Amino acid sequence: MSDEAKLAQAASAFRADVERIRAAVGEVIVGQGRVVECTVTALIAGGNVLLEGVPGLGKTELVKTLGRVLELEFKRIQFTPDLMPADIIGTKVMATDPTGRYQFEFRHGPVFTQLLLADEINRATPKTQSALLETMQERSVTVDGTTHKLTPPFFVLATQNPIEQEGTYPLPEAQLDRFMFKVSVPFLDRDEMNEVMTRTIVAQSVDVEKVVSGARILEMRDVLSKVVIAEPMRDYAVRLVLATHPDSEFCPERVKSYVRWGASPRAGQALLLGARVRALAEGRVHISFEDLDYFAAEVLQHRVLLNYDGQAEGIQTKDLIGDVLEYVSPV
């Protein structure tokens, strides 16, 4: 079998697995198709997701369902102002060895899992928030000079409430940049609300089957590296990122007026990774300009910092990303 035939076969299997994951999650999660798609995309690509939405929209249930569908270990951390870094990553405790001698040993915290839900992450202090930085980027935890590797695939899904901001600590830009996507979770419509009531009150709970293992997720990530990225596609992703900077030759007028700082190089990487997943999910082994546009809002909106004028006038960063997509030509 030729390399092209092998890649086509791998793309077909990739597409089938993505469809199975989405279908299995859809048996539990009502609506929220975009949220599910972005979450599954980031998980396969090796990124993390920040969900922004009011309580009760199924964010916790989504991660729990993913853990059941993907046969991955799931843990949840409820972030509060009194939470300490050791409560997340673990700490050393005094213990006895088989001979009865005392010694220190490291007790793993809840971050040692595969799917981690960081619930209301902006309620914890900056010191505690920073405890997640290494895990999100390096997939490891370092304590007293010793590095402990986390079990792959490791995925962080954090949530924050956009309405109730009293007693919260906004995430620093360095941590926001570690999230591949920031996804706004919309409220349900009438039909979806009725379906939720039916599933949770009238009918019995649904038992979802395990469709993909953690090992298969890692195999799918290997396939991503084989998706072709033509030079015009790569350059388009670069221009989209540069267009979010007010001093760039590619930026639209409103970006010059309302943006203090634009997206980082990680945004370009996220655009290309998301495009690769979308291409394979549609059975293609090459990305298109549409693939790069598809996740642009989720990739760029949390990486764009407004200046004073932008904040004073209530400018929404997602609207500025729309301007960027209209202004920057693919060719």
Structural notes for this entry:
The protein is α/β, with parallel strands linked by helices and 331 residues long. The chain has 2 domains: 1-81 and 113-208, Rossmann fold; 227-331, Helicase, Ruva Protein, domain 3 (Orthogonal Bundle), CATH 1.10.8.80. It is 46% helix and 15% strand. Strands 2-5-8-1-9 form a 5-stranded parallel sheet. Helix 10 (231-242) packs across helix 12. The longest helix is centred in the N-terminal third of the chain and has 24 residues, at 3-26. It is globular, with a radius of gyration of 21 Å.
Could you give a short description of this structure?
By secondary structure, the chain is of the alpha/beta class. 46% of the residues lie in helices and 15% in strands.
How does the SSE layout of this entry go?
Layout: H1 3-26, H2 33-45, E1 49-52, H3 59-69, E2 74-78, H4 85-89, E3 90-96, E4 102-108, E5 115-119, H5 126-129, H6 133-138, E6 140-143, E7 146-149, E8 155-160, H7 173-176, E9 181-184, H8 190-202, H9 214-224, H10 231-242, H11 253-258, E10 259-261, H12 265-281, H13 289-294, H14 296-300, E11 305-306, H15 308-312, H16 317-327
Parallel strand pairs: 1-8, 1-9, 2-5, 5-8
Antiparallel strand pairs: 3-4, 6-7, 10-11
What's the shape? globular
**CATH superfamily name of the largest domain?**
P-loop containing nucleotide triphosphate hydrolases
Average pLDDT confidence is: 86
Report on the biggest sheet.
Answer: 5 strands, parallel
> What is the name of the CATH architecture of the largest domain?
3-Layer(aba) Sandwich
Number of domains: 2
For the secondary structure, the number of strands is 11
Q: What fold name stands as the CATH topology of the largest domain?
A: Rossmann fold
The Cα radius of gyration reads 21 Å
Specify the CATH class of the largest domain.
Answer: Alpha Beta
Low-confidence stretches: none
Number of helices: 16
Judged by helices, strands and strand pairing, the structural class is alpha/beta
Q: Encode the helix/strand succession as letters.
A: HHEHEHEEEHHEEEHEHHHHEHHHEHH
- End-to-end distance: 36 Å
Determine the fraction of residues in helical runs and give it as a percent range.
40-55%
Strand content: 15-25%
Looking at how many chains there are and whether they match, the oligomeric state comes to single chain
**Widest sheet: strand ordering:** 2-5-8-1-9
